[in-house]
Amino acid sequence: MRDIVADHPLRRLAGQDEPAAGVVLDSLEQLLAPLDEQVWKKKRDEDFPALRSWGALLDFRAELVVAAEFHRANVPYALGNTKVSNPDFLLDAYGLGLEVNSKSPSGLTDLCEEIEELLHRHHPSAGALITASVYPSRMTGDNITLVRKHVASALEAADGAAVTPLTVVVKDSKNVTDVHLTVALTDQGSVNWQVEAGDLTVPLGSAEYAAVEAGRSPAKAKQGCAMPGRVMLAVDLSRYGAAWMRPAWVWAGRLARAIPADFPFGALAVFRQSIEYPGILQPAVGIASHLPAEDQDRFRRLCADLSWAASA
Fold first, then answer.
1. What are φ and ψ of residue 292, in 5° steps?
2. DSSP strands (E only) in 171-259
3. Nearest residue to 147 via CA among 117, 113, 116, 183
4. Mind listing the pLDDT tens digit for each residue in 217-259?
5. The whole model's pTM is what?
6. SS3 content of the chain, % helix, strand, coil (to 5)
């Protein structure tokens, strides 16, 4: 923590004498403590101190929770060489690789970071919860600016006093209807979002689509093809709306059916994380049915050792 940048998201928590802040920092420390200092030297000494947003921290933390799973299950691993296209983790005992990715809905992460920046100036110790009336398919730059202006006005008017929750109506033809966004300040020190209860077909379908699309980019495809048919793509869906409402065993079967024949990865996993918990949440793995039986068995053996739900 000594060398972190001035606007590092954890700097605000480090000086707080609040139980919630302590839980977040203790959780991160538990994730970092068992890591081999030489293996993780660059990530610990260079990448971690340079993080500037909660989104970037969660992206970084996604790799830590996967590494924690390997430590818990005594699964040996090595970090991939970042100078060439290969997975984040090399699992030589299984002849497999594992690549970690994080996904969040378009625009919502940007909105959260805008609100976070505002709070840093007006209420350094505060966080916020953004509640959407329906799942927003898109948040354009104009709408992000609109919400930011309303929140900024409320903060300035309050002049340090308590801020009552405010609601902004977002209009966009890409959304199924107008989206009412309610912003409420919290004492959690981070900015999060949620969607009110409703039909889950669209949000779960979107999360599933996002998991598959995470492996479609040219860069990710190269990492998957570094070990053809033997790399698992693990996607953190913590910030993807209702993804948490689908049980792991259901996710496993859905993912297996969603993997196309030309997918560059042999298996697709989803999981979640929480900044208050030093581990992985609800990991589920879909194994491509078109793989040779030997390679399918490699993934199943890894999942069994990790106690991760896997497709049949």
1. -60, 150
2. 179-186, 191-195, 231-236
3. 183
4. 888 989 999 999 999 999 999 887 677 788 999 999 999 999 9
5. 0.77
6. 40, 20, 40
